[in-house]
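Tutorial sheet, problem 5. The two components below are modelled jointly, 567 residues in total.
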Amino acid sequence: MVVPAARSNMLVSLGRYGLLSVILILMVFPLLWMLRISFMGTGQAISMNQVLAAGFTFSNYMDIFSGDLIGRPLLNSAAVGLAVTGGNILFCFMVAYSLARFRYLVNKLLFITVILILMIPAHIIIIPLYVLMLKTGLYDSYWALILPWLVNPIGIFLVKQYIESVPPAMEDAARIDGAGDFRIAFRIVMPLCKPALAVLAIQVFFTNWNSFLFPYILTISSELRTLPVALALYQGHQAVDWQHLMAGSSIAVLPVLVLFMFMQRHVVSGITAGAVKQ
Amino acid sequence: MRWSKPTALALALPWLLTFAAFWLFPIVYSLVMGFTDYQLLSRGYEWVGLENYRQLLADPDFIKALKNTFVFVGGTIPVTTIVSLGLALLVSRQFRGRGLFRAGYFVPSITSMVVVALIFTNLYQRGGYVALLTELVGLSPPEHGFLFDESTALYSIMAMDVWMAVGYYMLIFLAGLKSIPVELYEAAEISGSGRIRQFFWITLPLLRPVALFILVINTIKSFQVMVEIFVMTKGKFDTSTMVYFVYEKGLTTQFQFGYASAAAYVLFVIIALFSVAQFRLLRRRQPLW
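Model answer (structure tokens):
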């Protein structure tokens, strides 16, 4: 049978959209499932019929904010996330600037350490970091959640590459005008690096906001739990209280989703930066 | 470059300090601990030489964790790589609504692992959604749920990990596809080669560096699988992995720091070997396929 070109094109694109949509449903379904359960009444069974038939209620969200599942952990996650992100913006810039604009023996050494860290799997420091925190008294404090992650080697890379693409002419001019090294670094170069620093900030914030393992092993008191830790440990009580758990999970996903929607380009370029420059 | 050295060092100081304190020292410390019988509650510790490593090889829990880790890595990585390449090809060309599909496919990978693991714990439970689907297809789901059965638990977690990761690697593949010059396809079009030939002779060979980059980072990441195991099964039902083993031996009940450090170093060596092998491939000039 001969199909006219226009019609066959339409069929092809229809099939394509069909396939794309099926995959889309597969990819977002679990997240929609989470959202749906979070609006179901407590005590309702999570069966297919119930999920379809049950009504919507906000009571789970009210409960978790007045209880201890979300309130404190949300604040902890936000505080730690902001501290680590801020630290990375400042320190990664400083190191990257030093690497990009100074040549000296230590420079090579620094570069090697950066590469080393990129290659070293983090699991190797689980036990020694735990012992170190115990011995130094930092265990079970905000410091344990913040200090080890203040400078991110991938961030150094990202910013260094960016600085190298900026011609140093402006810095030279400022130097002739009598500006000091630090003034040049923070007043002239840093503002120029905003795009790279934004990418870095988002990467670091996402990683930190979602991280579970190290916050879990380096703290013990419930006042220091971050959101992922609180959620993972909440499951352990009695019979799983899915409605509240999924409400809490939705809250944990929300900031990341919103940031992603508004800064999609930055998120994407952070992920692909390493790959294309191979 | 006539700038003062003190400034350079001062700028690098935060990195040097945190690197020394939280990376270099722990890495060396853990190597040393691996040769001792150090435990949390022991007064001192003694050198035991290679005893920890000898014990590890005879420890059935460790062998199980080793086996499961390799099953996890060997099972997820090929599937993740192929599916993410397929997705990238599907959404690479310009069409209406492309941004929506890309974003939708990508969203799982920026969700917290804990949250994803919780959602799938629910989906996989007895009488849960996945069990329902299985019945619809005419198969019988495991009696106590997918995560409470040795024959399905690990594979269920692996499926979840693939679901979560494909969007992330799709983005990297997309960046790779974008870097292929359009002229190559135009030339192929003129010389009359079809879509399939173009894919095998242009797209695949030119994606090789990106594909290998993806393999390297995914390998390093996958060998360290732990959080989903912790949340979903606590290592039960034959799902324990190497990092879970390190956690379990080192930071629960007996706190065997020495023994756990040795286990961590075994994994470290495995990952290093794999990375070096893959970097060798990455550097090779001649095409792989």
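Marking note: The mean pLDDT of chain A is 84. Full credit if you identified this.
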